């Protein structure tokens, strides 16, 4: 397969930023902040992004650019004069299974967002009247949980949008979409932030969001933060490995990794300003969990001047974030199938998107109705896809990556990073020690704690 390269560092950073922003920053991060007491979580997250996120980005970038192949074959080749055991490719396959798991429900949430946009735009959800929790919950249940046909159609539309972009090429499609979608996402985000911080009661929400209550820092918060760092940066998905396989050999991987980590952190923190000032302004509890965006925010918009406009703007922002993330996750699987089985790109795209829709999206859609009696580890199908992917495959894939770089590639990894990053030689030495001995221990802590919470408790 003839591999193109990103046209510039900026387009690659925009593509990576799009891949790592997604629902991780705009949906998952805010509700975890609300559940964990506000400012303490935000502070811990920022520290964890520097201590763990950025070093892990560099790990996956080194693996991806080294051989410039798919996320499975990236664990092959030779290192330090020896042939790498083919068993290491299991790490790549685990990432692909995890990517399938997340897309199985991720696209359904994209369908939820499209449905909300349509419902509000065509007046089916009337935000001109003040809504209460009961009314909003009923809308949520009737139009999201109990209406699989409408959500199936919306999810299919979202999948088709991904298909149209992906057929343009691995680099061309994602790069072109990132050039236009990321600036639009930033513009919508800034619009929502400005609207929220100028509300009459915004100060209380900002205080909750930024003032750390150190009594809230406990093991659960720490584990939630570490899990969010991996989720937010798409670590263990194979995304960074795949995207960096298109990076030129003379690019500065250290600088790219640092910029990626800072940008992701900034966007995640900015996302909180879209939500918490308005929640406190209208007296809504911030700890409603994963349904925060879909249940609580319609109440906010119903009480807000030009609520329909800002509601559509907000959910459009979510749709863009979902799209910029789904494209590279799909690409992980598409590129692997295309290279491993030597088939044409369009056929690979159709197989991947169609297979995930039938085997993943449809079961997730029916998890609350036709298949509500089907449980996996005590969870419905939708929640099981999330828990198994995030708790098992992503974390174990990340663990495999750091062990592969620290104990198998060794000097080969450092040489790869030094191409274009020579002035960071001392820093890379410290990084290598850190990812070889310290980060594996932290990942194991996350894995054991998350596995216990999700499957044993």
From TrEMBL:
An example molecular function term from Gene Ontology annotations: symporter activity
PROSITE patterns per UniProt: NA_NEUROTRAN_SYMP_1, NA_NEUROTRAN_SYMP_3
Membrane topology field: Multi-pass membrane protein
Pfam hit, one: SNF
Highest rank taxon of the organism: Bacteria
Presence of keyword Thylakoid: no
Subcellular locations according to the entry: Membrane
One Gene Ontology CC term in the entry: membrane
InterPro entries hit by this protein: Na/ntran_symport, SNS_sf, YocR/YhdH-like
Transmembrane intervals: 12-33, 39-59, 90-114, 149-168, 180-199, 219-246, 258-284, 304-327, 348-367, 387-409, 430-452
Keyword annotations from UniProtKB, A to Z: Membrane, Symport, Transmembrane, Transmembrane helix, Transport
Broad class of the protein's primary localization: membrane
Family statement: Belongs to the sodium:neurotransmitter symporter (SNF) (TC 2.A.22) family.
Name by which UniProt lists this protein: Transporter
Source organism of this protein record: Campylobacter mucosalis CCUG 21559
């Amino acid at each position: 397969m003839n591999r193109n390269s990103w046209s510039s560092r900026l387009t690659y950073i925009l593509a990576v930023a799009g891949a790592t922003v997604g629902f991780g920053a705009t949906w998952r991060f805010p509700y975890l902040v609300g559940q964990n007491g506000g400012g303490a979580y935000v502070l811990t997250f920022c520290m964890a992004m520097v201590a763990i996120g950025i070093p892990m980005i560099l790990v996956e970038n080194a693996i991806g650019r080294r051989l410039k192949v798919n996320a499975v074959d990236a664990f092959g080749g030779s290192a330090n004069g020896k042939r790498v055991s083919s068993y290491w490719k299991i790490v790549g396959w685990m990432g692909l299974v995890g990517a399938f798991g997340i897309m199985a429900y991720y696209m359904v949430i994209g369908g939820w967002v499209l449905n909300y946009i349509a419902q509000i735009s065509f007046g089916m959800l009337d935000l001109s009247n003040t809504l209460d929790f009961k009314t909003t919950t009923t809308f949520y249940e009737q139009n999201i949980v109990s209406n699989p046909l409408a959500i199936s159609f919306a999810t299919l539309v979202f999948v088709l949008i991904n298909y149209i972009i992906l057929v343009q090429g691995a680099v061309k499609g994602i790069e072109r979409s990132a050039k236009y979608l990321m600036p639009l996402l930033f513009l919508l985000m800034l619009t929502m932030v400005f609207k929220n911080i100028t509300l009459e009661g915004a100060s209380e929400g900002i205080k909750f969001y930024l003032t750390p209550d150190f009594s809230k820092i406990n093991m659960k918060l720490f584990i939630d933060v570490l899990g969010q760092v991996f989720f937010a940066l798409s670590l263990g998905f194979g995304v960074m490995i795949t995207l960096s396989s298109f990076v030129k050999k003379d690019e500065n991987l250290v600088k790219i990794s640092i910029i990626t980590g800072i940008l992701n952190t900034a966007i995640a923190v900015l996302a909180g300003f879209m939500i918490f000032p308005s929640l406190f302004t209208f007296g809504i509890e911030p700890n409603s969990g994963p349904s925060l965006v879909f249940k609580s925010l319609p109440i906010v918009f119903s009480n807000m001047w030009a609520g329909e406009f800002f509601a559509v703007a907000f959910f459009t922002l979510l749709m863009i974030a979902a799209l910029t993330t789904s494209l590279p996750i799909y690409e992980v699987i598409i590129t692997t199938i295309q290279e491993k089985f030597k088939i044409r790109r369009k056929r690979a795209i159709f197989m991947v998107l169609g297979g995930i829709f039938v085997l993943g999206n449809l079961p997730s859609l029916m998890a609350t109705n036709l298949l509500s009696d089907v449980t996996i580890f005590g969870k419905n199908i939708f929640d099981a896809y999330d828990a198994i992917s995030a708790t098992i495959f992503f974390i174990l894939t990340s663990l495999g990556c750091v062990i592969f770089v620290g104990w198998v590639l060794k000097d080969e990894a450092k040489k790869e990073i030094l191409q274009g990053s020579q002035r960071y030689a001392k820093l890379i030495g410290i990084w290598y020690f850190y990812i070889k001995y310290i980060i594996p221990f932290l990942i194991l802590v996350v894995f054991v704690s998350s596995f216990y919470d999700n499957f044993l408790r």
